[in-house]
Amino acid sequence: MRALYPGSFDPLTLGHLDLIERSARLFDGVIVAVLQNPSKSPAFSLDQRLQQIRQATAHLAGPQLATIEVGSFDGLSVDYARQCGAEVILRGLRAMSDFEFELQIAHTNKSLAPHVETLFLATAVHHSFLSSSVVKEVARFGGDVRHMVPAGVADDLSRLFNRNSP
Ligand code: ADP
């Protein structure tokens, strides 16, 4: 069975990566796909985000692990899931605050594509405080984010927020 893990990933955090690693043990194929949302102006370009995901998931290979594919789309997740042959849309839950929104999306998707199931994985407890926006906020003010994001993303964040420094 194949699963689609859609998100903004702006940028990828260790919380996202943990979900990808765990899902790689559950499915035959996992497609991590960056949603290009026209109503959001991302901090990182699509190419940067794809590169961050490719780099951070490169170690995920082996007989017990699903192949990780990386892609992008700009329409409905259910349409992209069908296009990729994914029967499952994977989402992560951190806290009750995620639940209401995620449930609404899951019900909407079910009404659009009854054969596509949404599956939620609970975040690892030590990553439950992590979000892309918190990571950007910390990095913007010079805080250390190396325990929150993959190494390549930490480098990208310091380049992004120190771009005017000598
Ligand atoms: P969105 O797709 O809503 O723009 P993100 O790209 O940040 O948000 O997240 C994609 C998915 O990953 C969402 O289901 C979100 O709940 C989940 N997620 C985000 N951060 C974490 C984390 N620290 N642990 C587990 N899941 C997470």
Structural class by helix and strand composition? alpha/beta
Bound compounds, each kind once, are: adenosine-5'-diphosphate
| Largest sheet geometry | 5 strands, parallel
Shape category: globular
Q: Per DSSP, what share of the residues sits in E-state strands of 2 or more residues?
A: 15-25%
Distance between the termini: 50 Å
In total, the number of strands is 5
Query: CATH topology, what is it called?
Result: Rossmann fold
> Using only CA atoms, what is the Rg?
16 Å
Based on the coordinates given, report the CATH architecture: 3-Layer(aba) Sandwich
Overall tally of domains: 1
CATH class bucket = Alpha Beta
Uncertain ranges: none
Q: Approximately how much helix is present in the residues?
A: 40-55%
Can you walk through the features of this model?
With 166 residues, this protein is an alpha/beta fold. The protein has one domain: HUPs (Rossmann fold), CATH 3.40.50. 41% of the residues lie in helices and 19% in strands. A 5-stranded parallel beta sheet has the order 3-2-1-4-5, sandwiched between helices. Strand 4, helix 4 and strand 5 (117-122) form a beta-alpha-beta unit. The chain binds adenosine-5'-diphosphate (ADP). Adenosine-5'-diphosphate binds next to helix 1 and strand 4.
Secondary-structure map with pairings?
Blueprint: E1 2-7, H1 14-24, E2 29-35, H2 46-57, E3 67-73, H3 77-84, E4 88-93, H4 96-112, E5 117-122, H5 132-140, H6 151-161
Parallel strand pairs: 1-2, 1-4, 2-3, 4-5
